Amino acid sequence: MSFLVEFAMFPTDKGESVSPYVSRIIKMIDESGIPYKLTPMGTVFEVDTMEEALNVINQAYKQLEPDCNRVYTVIKMDIRKGAEKRIEGKIKSVEKNLGKEVKK
């Protein structure tokens, strides 16, 4: 099973630029070994179970909890049985339908 998760999480009480706080979350995900993609508007990762997905979200929050009084979070999930490696696969499917590789 594939739990493809897109989320954004950041403090709202730390001023205009929050990249130092977001970086804490990305470091935690990177060190976990979970496949992920950082985008300008959030992060996409893929795991096998709901428990793993929610654990990543919980661990992300724990990166901000000690010194952030208000945290904004948006989470989207695409859950599909019998699938895996969809972070890359979904992009390749669109590229195939276009008949070419999309420029990155």
From TrEMBL:
InterPro entries: MTH1187/YkoF-like (IPR029756), Thiamine_BP (IPR002767), UPF0045_domain (IPR051614)
GO CC entries: cytosol
Domain of life: Bacteria
A Pfam family this chain is assigned to: Thiamine_BP
Domain Thiamine-binding protein: 5-95
Protein family membership: Belongs to the UPF0045 family.
Name of the featured protein: MTH1187 family thiamine-binding protein
Species annotation: Sulfurihydrogenibium azorense
